[in-house]
């Protein structure tokens, strides 16, 4: 966790429900603020992952999925956007309102 991140900001960033973060980490129901360096388990559904196809770029993926190259790089720990490879699995952020009954 980075300084200033909250349960809500993490839920938005990773496209998961705030309640799932709270339940999965046994936090108090009203928890919002988190301490920098805190390790959390984030229940990411399978459908958030995408396999890179030949000649695909993060820019094209960002445009297709309505996100930014910067966010794709951040949530996938990618340092150089030109260093993605065919077959590589990356996580895609999905808006919370598009997730139906997340079961992890």
Strand order, largest beta sheet: 1-2
Helix content: 25-40%
The helix-strand sequence is HHEHHE
Name the overall outline.
elongated
Number of helices: 4
At CATH level 3, the topology of the largest domain is: Membrane-bound Lytic Murein Transglycosylase D, Chain A
Mean pLDDT: 82
How many β-strands, per DSSP? 2
How many individual domains? 2
Largest sheet: 2 strands, antiparallel
CATH homologous superfamily designation of the largest domain: LysM domain
Per DSSP, what share of the residues sits in E-state strands of 2 or more residues? 5-15%
Supply the CATH architecture of the largest domain: Roll
| Rg | 15 Å
CATH class of the largest domain: Alpha Beta
Topology:
Blueprint (H helix, E strand, L loop, with lengths): L6 H8 L3 H7 L24 E3 L6 H8 L3 H7 L13 E3 L13
Antiparallel strand pairs: 1-2
Task: Tell me what you see in this structure.
This protein has 104 residues and is mainly alpha-helical. The chain has two domains: 1-43, Membrane-bound Lytic Murein Transglycosylase D, Chain A, CATH 3.10.350; 45-94, Roll (Membrane-bound Lytic Murein Transglycosylase D, Chain A). Helix content is 29%, strand content 6%. It has four helices and two strands. The chain has helices spanning 7-14, 18-24, 58-65, 69-75; strands at 49-51, 89-91. A two-stranded antiparallel sheet has the order 1-2. The two termini are 21 Å apart. Mean pLDDT is 82; it is low at 96-104.
């Amino acid at each position: 966790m980075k300084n200033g991140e909250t349960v809500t900001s993490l839920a938005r960033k990773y496209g998961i429900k705030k309640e799932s973060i709270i339940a999965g980490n046994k936090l108090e129901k009203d928890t919002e603020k988190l301490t920098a360096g805190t390790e959390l388990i984030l229940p990411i559904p399978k459908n958030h992952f995408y396999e890179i196809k030949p000649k695909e770029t993060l820019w094209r993926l960002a445009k297709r999925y309505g996100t930014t190259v910067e966010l794709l790089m951040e949530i996938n720990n990618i340092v150089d956007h030109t260093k993605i490879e065919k077959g590589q699995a990356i996580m895609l952020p999905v808006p919370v309102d598009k997730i139906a009954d997340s079961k992890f």
